[in-house]
TrEMBL record, chains A, B:
Residues 7-170 form the MoaB/Mog domain. Signal peptide: none annotated. SMART domains: MoCF_biosynth. This is Molybdopterin-binding protein. It comes from Marivita geojedonensis. InterPro entries: CinA, FLAD1_M, MoaB/Mog-like_dom_sf, MoaB/Mog_dom.
């Protein structure tokens, strides 16, 4: 059975302008791999309604699971909840359950639950909330789409609470063989081994160290016996 | 006149599996910003022919310029040149000019220009070469698409040689105001200022430091007078 697939949609001008380096994609990629879900595509779009709605509709049709990050805060450029509602064709407004969480949080700190903060309780109809133990303002799940915050500590907490709810696959095993020869030297036989093991993904990643070329050959797959077998064949060929 | 737009297509399983952290996107974002080109979208896809062709056709139709990274080496998983040719509906084969560059390079090092290395001379019909001063194997430009290597040092060299050939726009100016108040406190007035300056992009990026919340307000635009004016209004409101 093939592994389930996922896509990620990163929403935010700050990454596209080069101001901020995205940290969430790398974290999500690693967490999904652990539970046997293949992250197949990532899109990064700006804070633009049409771009967000269109990317979201493409991705949710093509993959088992979509995870978004960014754009669910209190400021004018936080438009993700409205865009997700538009993509699903549902109504969105401040919802009582989300508002109650935030009201209690601000009350306990003696802070005003003002109109801007109420934006963080805008939840599309039919969505369920994703808990935010870091700063309370919830994410939400609608259909196969999980909407999370962009702040890395909050994103990671939300990923941790959503991952156990997803249908995973056989764990994706990965082994790496370091070969101190350039890719051009090993590419011929490597390609033949890749053909021998069509169910595995065999990649080659070149590096340069102390002026010499080398390659890391990475074998990935969910069948441990095949992965071991391919690694043995590679070691025999390239490290003799 | 609006700034020209660009998109980036990152090709490579190693980023989606969480094995490698992409470094090229951040570099490209900063270089494009310097010449007034708006990076509007990034897509990361796996080494899959259909995914690459379809993403490339979407992006080149929607943006003035597309830059790809990855998948132009000598191994079996390097399929970018073939995918670009398929997207443009043109023939691709080993081309004399690219082969001559590589032949001279390997001759000078006493290395064999074997079949695997000849893959790096596969160039779609009608493309022009992008120089690679680091490891010789060229990138190429076809239509509005610039195809570059994934290895960061090579990618950066190729970006440096392509950027001067692109039509830029007015430089995009950026100023940041740090406010030691949480987003929920400032969001109301900030939204009103964003409405006053529809030609600027005004973003708010929350942070937490020593247990206190703060926000960096970033004002971006190509009209320096407007950027200064907006910054003055923000400073008056939030740092008084």
């Amino acid at each position: 059975m093939p592994n389930p697939t996922a896509a990620m949609l990163v929403i935010g001008d700050e990454i596209l302008s080069g101001r901020t380096r995205d940290a969430n994609m790398h974290h999500l990629a690693q967490e999904l791999t652990k539970v046997g879900i293949n992250l197949r595509e990532v899109r990064i779009v700006s804070d633009d309604r049409d771009a967000i709605v269109s990317a979201l509709n493409d991705l949710r049709a093509a993959h088992d699971t979509v995870i978004t990050s960014g754009g669910i805060g209190p400021t004018h450029d936080d438009i993700t909840a409205d865009c997700v509602a538009a993509a699903f064709g549902v109504h969105v407004d401040v919802r009582d359950d989300a508002a109650a969480l935030l009201q209690a949080h601000y009350d306990s700190r003696g802070m005003e639950f003002n109109d801007a903060r109420k934006r963080m309780a805008r939840i599309p109809d039919g969505a369920t909330l994703i808990e935010n133990p870091v700063s309370i303002a919830p994410g939400f799940t609608i259909g196969n789409v999980h909407v999370m915050a962009g702040v890395p500590s909050v994103f990671q907490a939300m990923v941790a609470s959503v991952i156990p709810t997803l249908t995973g696959g056989a764990p994706i095993l990965s082994q790496t063989l370091r070969v101190d020869r350039g890719e051009g030297d090993i590419a011929g036989p490597l390609g033949r081994i890749a053909e021998e093991f069509p169910d595995l993904s065999i990649g080659s990643y070149p590096f340069q160290q102390n002026g010499a070329y080398g390659s890391n050959i990475v074998v990935r797959g969910s069948d441990g016996v095949q992965v071991d077998h391919a690694m043995a064949r590679l070691a025999e060929l390239f490290t003799a």
